[in-house]
Fold:
Amino acid sequence: MSRFFSDRYASLVPYVPGEQPQDRRYLKLNTNESPFPPSPGVLAAVSEESGRLNLYSDPDARALREKMAETYGVNPDRVILSNGSDEVLNFAFMAFSDEKRPLVFPDITYGFYPVFAELNRIPYTEIPVKEDLSVDPADYCGKEKKTVVIANPNAPTGRFLPLREIERIVQANPDGVVIVDEAYIDFGGESAIPLTDKYDNLLVVGTFSKSRSMAGARLGFGIGCPDLIRDLNTVRNSVNPYNVNRMTLAAGVAALADAAYYRANCETIMQNREKAAAELESLGFTVIPSKANFLFAKHPAIGGKQLYLTLKERGILIRHFDKPRIRDYNRITVGTKEQMETLVSSIKQILNEQGGQK
Ligand SMILES: Cc1ncc(COP(=O)(O)O)c(C=O)c1O
Structure:
């Protein structure tokens, strides 16, 4: 820390993203990226748009907001775009929370929520998930004047709350904003976006990083009633009106136009997920039922950290969280069929070698 660093941030513990190692080629199953490249339409759009990089991007992102509106059946004034969904989450915390409207989220959830809360000096309460790592909707009802944040499906567990439970939470908090983070919704969940027409306190956040293979382009969005979106734009325009670059805006439009390509990829991921889950279970793993593009699993014979480190030595990266309650688990991104076969056969070997050592 320099002697100039503001006291305001001196105790801030930043979010630690999953490893992006450059030392060797790994089978990367640690950051929930898509194993599939962007669609050909996206590649062409990015290439074409790159010739206009001398010009700022459209601060209103009109073309992409219109395409989003058409895709999701909402008005363009209900859509805000962001530099990854992390950015719109931060804007939402800034816009809708403070000492008088603290945050509430589960103790086991996306690790950026407490970081954004600390960054913005917003008090927060972490509500313990149940023993089976599921979120109990009753815990989020009647949270008077608090801002509730729910990742659905949740990360890193993959557990999903049905839409009626999300609606129950939204209805039970009429005086607070409910933020539903749907980063993984396209892998078998049901989106709350249609509910944003009915409730003025619901903000749904989404991303192009997972199901649309655009993690490196950084494109996220928020959908909610026009007043909520206006507030978010007040914050956005006070930070960076050009928050989404030209190539990413063009890529977003093309990705939405190539919906069939991405739907097919999601189907493949879901099939690979179910197959890998069954195989891991047959090896003795406890696997949390997942509606995301990852699995959360633990094995009685090998600790979470040990499995993570042993796989890493063998060139496979998965994600271990050294956190109370979930230390025994690892989060494994679902990749291609071949990638999952490599993973399962490496784990089989590791378990055999372990058994041999006993
Ligand atoms: C639950 C959840 N929300 C949001 C994000 C952020 O995604 P991005 O900023 O890439 O859109 C992630 C990323 O892993 C996530 O797991």
The two ends are 47 Å apart (CA to CA). The chain has two domains: 19-36+260-357, 40-257. The pocket of pyridoxal-5'-phosphate is lined by residues 32, 84-86, 110, 151, 155, 181, 183, 207, 209, 215, 220 (CB under 6 Å). The longest helix spans residues 259-282.
